[in-house]
Design goal:
mainly alpha
Length: about 210
């Protein structure tokens, strides 16, 4: 959570010099949404051992987290290449992206709360784990993935600049992790998961 303190300090310094003209409100909404997701994950995971082990793994994980935070949240629109626009700065487009971000983040947080202590940052089945099929898990088998994919796509649309494409890396990581989680669950609950997968789609309701 310390990254948010750094971001607020940098924003305050920019604002004090008057160097931040015409800030997009939908962009600020997505930043606040992302901060809320971080806070919710932090509060929910206090009793859960973090993924990975050792100082090196922890440091690498922090670096991978800080880079998209800084690229997306700071006023870098005037930086060559990073601030190049991919989408027109239309208010309707920005608000549509912000709505996607809020909806996706809310869905992901809800799914995380349903899992409770069963959640893990690693692809692993925790002791006393049960196959959760209620709440968001009755809509798709991987609601946290769906929520975060929707939120990240919404953030890309809202900002509409090259630097927002940093989230393509996050989307790629999620999509590579999803089949690993599927395989682990099928191995742990072969009969139950097979029946579950016939009733509920993997990532897109009623489609896939």
């Amino acid at each position: 959570m310390r990254i948010w303190i750094a971001i607020v300090v940098i924003w305050a310094a920019y604002a004090a010099t008057g160097a931040v003209p015409g800030v997009s409100v939908p962009w600020l909404v997505t930043i606040g949404c992302w901060a809320f997701v971080d806070l919710a994950w932090h509060l929910s995971g206090r009793e859960i051992a973090p993924a990975g082990s050792g100082r090196d793994a922890s440091m690498w994980a922090r670096i991978l987290t800080y880079i998209p935070h800084l690229l997306y949240c700071l006023p870098l629109a005037d930086v060559p290449i990073l601030g190049f626009r991919l989408l027109p700065p239309l208010s309707s487009v920005r608000w549509a992206g912000a709505a996607m971000c809020v909806a996706g983040a809310g869905f992901g947080i809800c799914a995380r709360r349903v899992l409770g202590k069963r959640w893990s940052g690693d692809v692993a089945i925790a002791p006393a784990h049960a196959l959760v099929q209620r709440g968001p898990y009755a809509i798709v088998r991987h609601p946290i993935y769906l929520g975060f994919l929707l939120a990240q796509l919404g953030m890309i649309i809202t900002l509409g600049e090259v630097r927002a494409l940093i989230f393509v890396y996050g989307i790629d990581r999620l999509m590579k992790k999803l089949p690993l989680e599927e395989a682990a669950l099928r191995k742990e609950y072969p009969m139950e998961y097979e029946q579950y997968s016939r009733r509920v789609r993997k990532l897109v309701p009623f489609v896939w």
